[in-house]
Design goal:
529 residues; alpha/beta; four-stranded parallel beta sheet
Length: 529
């Protein structure tokens, strides 16, 4: 009989353990009894705005960026409303904590700091043939997935299952910057082993303790994942590739871009950011710039590519090297009459106006490189986009100092203001993909798009560039300030949604009359009552 009396009582403990619905001390007093949490939390009521500042004060007491990262993760695992309210209100301060550069260190230490909380979805080779069944263990209605196999995490290389921190971080930014609901996101790691010797010898490593599997078995696992995700969540579920190795990234994108609503952020997202402001990512940037040239001056794609040159570890990529090049580099292997075995020799010969680094080679843009770029151009464009900070091709201070303030500079990880000896101050932009992918995610969600194309990326880059003011350009900022990122994302989302309706890949009808207003109203806001 006692058990019967409890049948209709709310389960407060169950509610308190659900971070999406539990709002802690910001739960109004009058709602606590109905939710069954009265007595489970302190009696005071703190408005969300106050609770945000309470937690920010505690975060600022932490001594290291990693401690701050772990503190934020603890809040997210308890109260997602509070976590996202902190990000929305303090995105400029917290971006380097939740994502680059701090997320790199967090990934490296994942197996040692993992607490067993429900965060992320783990698929391994041992789950082959069972993925659709496993996805039923995830009860939420997912619209947006970020998936990695952990092989090329930032500039840190093969981290195996420890790379799950990247999809988790990206999903946080989809919500904070693009308004994707927390309950609609799914960060995924596909664990096929690791070739990282440190991981393999670590007794606490949490992934498969074996070398990476390649070939048909790998391909079948990825294929099964895509089919299972679409069957579970629908054909218009967005699946973003993240940090796949060079050997797989381009071919997987080619394989699935016509079968799913998918894109590769390292290839296409980085390209859109670079295009708006001015390896693997390098070819993607080249492809989108070439596409933009065809749209803006009417060139054919072959002529557009001839204006773009690539340098790798062996020097300038030329037609003489075609036999040994990976397929994504071949179209930029031009005929030249000069041997350029190094970056500096290529700059001396080609005299480029734009230099974009995605090499993950620290200090690749040294004093000689920057000085030569300045000697050849009145305003050389120098983008050091490699992440994390320790992998950057040069720092903002180096670029501005070595070019006497001539450089138009941006970086992948954030750098602070730089003041030269003559008193001129520059505010370097951060070429962060967060300017692009949250808006794409929101736009595909609003329209129900079933495909993402290169033209979408081009349109997103245009929308981003349009948000930069003349005043910002005058102090060296080639991107808008992060504190208006949600406004930027809404503009990009409306652009992406409009193109989905124009090209016939939208599935949500009738088409809204005002797509910008629709995108803004669809954005999750933790401060909404």
């Amino acid at each position: 009989m006692d058990n019967d009396k409890n049948v209709d009582k709310p389960c407060g403990i169950r509610h308190a353990k659900n971070p999406i619905h539990f709002h802690g001390v910001s739960t109004p007093i009058e709602e606590r009894t109905a939710l069954g949490i009265r007595g489970l939390i302190p009696s005071a009521y703190l408005p969300l705005e106050v609770d945000v500042e309470r937690c920010m004060a505690r975060l600022r007491e932490k001594c290291s960026a990693l401690e701050k990262y772990i503190y934020l993760r603890n809040i997210q695992d308890t109260n997602e409303q509070l976590y996202y309210a902190m990000l929305v209100r303090h995105i400029t301060e917290l971006m380097p904590i939740v994502y680059t550069p701090t997320v790199g260190e967090a990934c490296q230490r994942f197996s040692h700091t993992y607490k067993g909380t429900l965060r992320g979805f783990y698929i391994s080779l041992e789950d082959k043939g069972m993925i659709r069944q496993l996805l039923d263990n995830w009860s939420e209605d997912v619209t947006t997935i970020v998936v990695t196999d952990g092989e090329r995490i930032l500039g840190l290389g093969d981290l195996g299952v420890n790379g799950i921190g990247i999809p988790i971080g990206k999903m946080s930014l989809y919500t904070a910057c693009g308004g994707i609901k927390p309950s609609h996101q799914l960060p995924v790691i596909i664990d096929v082993g690791t070739n990282n010797e440190e991981n393999l010898s670590d007794p606490y490593y949490l992934g498969l303790r074996q070398r990476r599997v390649r070939g048909p078995v790998y391909d079948e696992l990825i294929q099964e994942f895509f089919e299972a995700a679409q069957d579970k969540f629908g054909k218009n579920v967005l699946i973003q590739f993240e940090d796949f190795g060079n050997i797989n990234a381009f071919r997987l994108l080619e394989e699935f871009k016509g079968k799913a609503c998918t894109f590769n952020d390292d290839i296409q997202g980085t390209a859109a950011v670079a295009l708006a402001g001015a390896g693997e990512a390098g070819a993607g940037i080249a492809d989108l710039i070439a596409y933009a040239i065809t749209k803006e001056d009417g060139s054919n794609i072959e002529d557009a590519r001839k204006k773009i040159f690539m340098v790798d570890s062996k020097g300038l990529i030329t037609s003489a090297r075609k036999a040994n090049l990976r397929h994504h580099k071949v179209k930029y292997a031009h005929d030249v009459n000069f041997n350029c075995p190094s970056l500096i020799s290529a700059i001396e010969y080609l005299k480029p106006s734009v230099l974009i680094g995605v090499s993950a080679v620290p200090k690749a843009f040294d004093k000689e490189v920057c000085e030569m770029m300045a000697a050849n151009n009145s305003r050389p464009v120098i983008f050091a986009l490699s992440n994390p900070t320790l992998k950057a091709e040069c720092t903002a201070e180096e670029a501005y100092t070595w070019t006497d303030g001539q450089a138009i500079f941006c970086s992948g990880s954030p750098f602070g203001e730089v003041t030269l000896k003559d008193g001129r101050t520059f505010k370097p932009g951060q070429g962060n993909n967060v300017y692009i992918f949250p808006g794409i995610g929101l736009g595909t969600h609003v329209s129900g798009s079933t495909a993402i194309t290169d033209h979408d990326m081009y349109l997103a880059a245009q929308a981003l560039a349009s948000k930069v003011t003349e005043e910002e350009l005058m102090v060296g900022s080639v991107y808008p300030p992060l504190h208006i990122i949600r406004e930027v994302s809404a503009e990009i989302a409306a652009t992406i949604a409009e193109n989905a309706y124009v090209t016939g890949v939208a599935t949500k009808y009738p088409k809204p009359n005002d797509l910008l207003s629709t995108c803004k109203s669809a954005m999750y806001d933790p401060f909404d009552k």
